[in-house]
Design brief:
The structure is a homodimer of 352-residue chains. The first copy, chain A, is α+β, with helices and mostly antiparallel strands. Helices cover 35% and strands 21% of the residues of chain A.
Chain lengths: 352, 352
C-alpha cells in the first residue's frame, strides 16, 4: 500500500475509525495522486476509488498495483454495494470541514452508517509536514517564480497598465509552469494600499511604487512571493516604511524554526509595527502546498509550534490608506535549525 | 427593501422560517449586489450583513438606504450580539447544500439556534428565473462571446498550439469583459474526442477538427458557447456526425419553451443519437446565470418544466474515443412561445 494511505490507516486505528469517506479532491490527490472528481473509501478490507466514466481510464493510468486501490465506475454501483462497504464498522470518519450538511445526510443514507464521525481535519493536518518529493516540487515552483520576477522587472515600463503586467506574469507561468496558483496582484501607486488589490487599467507612472504578489503551480504544488518595487527612485517616506517591513520580515525569518511558537513570531512583527504606529492588519503568513493557503496559519491566534518540513510564507505589510503600501513575502522551509528560503529574489530596494 | 429580499422574506414566511442565515457568496451577491466575503442574516426585524474590515467601505458603497441592510464589522460583534439575532425564532433556515457540516455545528453554537432547518436550495431555485436586468447582462456576455469567436476564427492558423489559442481567447475576454466564466477548452484532432479536454501543446494541423468551448463574464453574468470548426476542409466521416449533432441541437431549440418537459427534450436528442448508434454521454445543457453551471440541469433525470425567463444551454455532442468529437452549444432564453438564442454565431460548417 502506498505510504500515505498506510499512514492514514494507522491514524484511523488510533482514532477508533474502521472506515473513512474522503471527499475533498485535494486530499484524494494527496493520498492517491488522482486529480479528478470522485470519492475515496477506506474500508476494513480495501481502498476504493469511485468515479465516473470520464476518469476511469485516467485513474488506472495514475495508480499502480502497489497503491492497492480498486477503481469503480459509480454507474456500476448498487445501493447494496454502498451499504456493504462499511458493514460492521462502529465508526466511519468523514471530512466535516469539506462535506456540506446536505452531503453528510446523503452519506448517512447511502452508506447506511449510523456513526459518521468528524475527523478534525486529519488529512489536512498531515499535509502540513511535507515529504522530500513535495519539498522538491515547492522549491521548483519558487524557482520559477524567481525567474518570472527577474523577467517581469525588465519587462515593466511606465505607461503599461497593471492588467498588462499581470497578464505577462500569467503568460510566463502558463509557459513555464502549470499556470498561476492564485490571481496575480499588480497594485501600483495608491492601489498598493489595498492588501487584496485586483489589477486595474491604471498606468504605471514615474516615481510609482508597485506591489506584485504572484505564484505558480509546479507538479501540483504552489509558490507564493511578493515584492514591492520602485519606478525611478525610492521616495523618502516610503523608504522608511519599506525598511520597517523588511526588517520585520527578516526578523520573522530569523525566528522561524522547528519548535518556534507561531503566535510569538507574529506578535513580534506586530510589536515592531506598533513601535512605529502601524498595525499588522493581516496574518503574517500561511502554509503552502497543494493549496496556496493551507495550515498552519501564521498569526497571533495560532498557539501551535512550527515543525520541521513545514513550508510557510512570511509576508508582513504596512498599508497607508489611499496612499501606498509595502509588502514583502518569501516562501520558506522550516528545519530543525532555522528556515531556508525557497524564494531567492532580492529584497533590497528594487528600482526599475 | 429591495425586491429580491422582499421576495425572500415572503418565501420564508410561507416556509414558517422566522430567520435565515445566508452564507453562499453567490446568493448574497444575488440578494444584495455585494460581492465579498461575509454573511447575510435575515432576522425578524432587520437585514444584517456581517463582514470584515476589508469590505466594510465597499459594502456601504454598494448598498443604498432602499436596501435596508445594516452592515457590521464582525470584530465589533460579541457572542451576545449573535445570540440576539434569532432570539424567539422558532425556525431559522440555512443553506444545507453550501454550508459544511462543521459550519452547521458552529452556527448552532454561535447563534444559539435550536432549530436550524434546511431550505432546499430556496434562493438557487429563485435564481433560475432571470429578471430583465439579468437577461440584459446575459445577452451582452453572449454578444461578447460571439465577437470573440469571430475574432478567434480569423486568428487561428495551422502551427499554433491549443494553449496559444486558448490564451488569445482569455486575453480577448480580459480586455472586453470580466475575464472567462470557466476554463476555455480548445481541443483539436483526437483531443476533441474528450468532452472535458484541457488545452495542450498540440499544434493545429491541416485537416484538423477543433472544438472550442468558451464563455466570459459581464456584470457578473456568464456566457457559454461551443463550436466545432474545421481546418481546410470537412472530412466526410466527420460531416456525417456534425450533421447529426447540429440537427439534434436545432431540434432541442425548437422544443425549448415555457412548459416543455426537460426530460423529454434530452430524451429526444438521445433517441436521435441512438438511431445512428451514438449516445448522449453528458447532460444536454444547464442553466446559466451568475454561475456558469446552475439549475435547471437539462438532462433525462430532470422531471421539471422549462419556464419563461430561464436561460439555459443546449449542447449535444458526439465523441468517438481516440478519434474526434463534435459539440455545438448555444445559450438561450426561454419564452412563452419558444426560445430565443442569445448566441448568434453561425452553426454551418465553419472552415478556416
Amino acid at each position: 500500500m502506498n505510504s500515505k494511505i498506510t499512514w492514514l490507516r494507522n491514524a484511523m486505528t488510533s482514532l477508533n475509525l474502521q472506515g473513512m469517506i474522503i471527499s475533498n479532491p485535494v486530499n484524494i490527490k494527496y493520498l492517491t495522486g488522482i486529480d479528478a472528481e470522485g470519492m475515496l473509501l477506506i474500508t476494513r478490507k480495501e481502498n476504493v476509488y469511485i468515479t465516473d466514466g470520464r476518469y476511469i481510464e485516467y485513474a488506472h493510468s495514475i495508480l499502480t498495483l502497489f497503491d492497492e486501490i480498486i477503481v469503480y465506475n459509480y454507474t456500476d454501483m448498487s445501493q447494496e454495494d454502498y451499504e456493504n462497504f462499511f458493514m460492521f464498522c462502529e465508526n466511519v470518519g468523514f471530512e466535516e470541514s469539506y462535506v456540506t450538511y446536505a452531503k453528510y445526510k446523503e452519506y448517512m443514507h447511502k452508506f447506511k452508517v449510523n456513526s459518521l464521525v468528524e475527523t478534525d481535519n486529519l488529512i489536512e493536518k498531515q499535509r502540513i509536514i511535507k515529504d522530500e518529493e513535495e519539498i522538491k516540487n515547492l522549491k521548483t515552483a519558487c524557482e520559477i517564480t524567481d525567474n518570472c520576477f527577474s523577467y517581469i522587472i525588465k519587462f515593466i515600463k511606465p505607461g503599461m497598465t497593471e492588467k498588462e503586467i499581470a497578464r505577462e506574469i500569467d503568460n510566463f507561468y502558463n509557459e513555464n509552469a502549470e499556470g498561476v496558483s492564485f490571481e496575480t496582484i499588480v497594485a501600483s501607486g495608491e492601489n498598493s494600499s489595498k492588501p487584496h488589490a485586483v489589477p486595474t487599467d491604471r498606468k504605471i507612472e514615474e516615481q510609482d511604487i508597485i506591489t506584485i504578489d504572484m505564484g505558480c503551480k509546479y507538479n501540483g504544488y504552489c509558490s507564493d512571493m511578493t515584492r514591492t518595487i520602485f519606478v525611478g527612485s525610492v521616495p523618502e517616506d516610503i523608504k522608511k516604511i519599506y525598511d520597517i517591513v523588511l526588517k520585520s520580515q527578516q526578523q520573522a525569518l530569523d525566528e522561524m524554526k522547528d519548535g518556534a511558537i507561531i503566535r510569538q513570531i507574529a506578535k513580534n512583527v506586530d510589536t515592531n509595527f506598533r513601535f512605529y504606529n502601524y498595525d499588522l492588519i493581516h496574518a503574517l503568513g500561511h502554509g503552502v502546498g497543494m493549496e496556496i493557503h493551507e495550515r498552519p496559519y501564521i498569526s497571533m491566534n495560532n498557539d501551535t509550534l512550527l515543525k520541521e518540513n513545514m513550508v510557510v510564507t512570511d509576508e508582513p505589510g504596512i498599508y497607508i490608506p489611499g496612499k501606498y503600501g509595502v509588502r514583502i513575502e518569501d516562501t520558506v522551509l522550516i528545519t530543525k535549525f532555522g528556515c531556508i528560503s525557497l524564494t531567492e529574489s532580492a529584497k533590497n530596494y528594487i528600482i526599475i
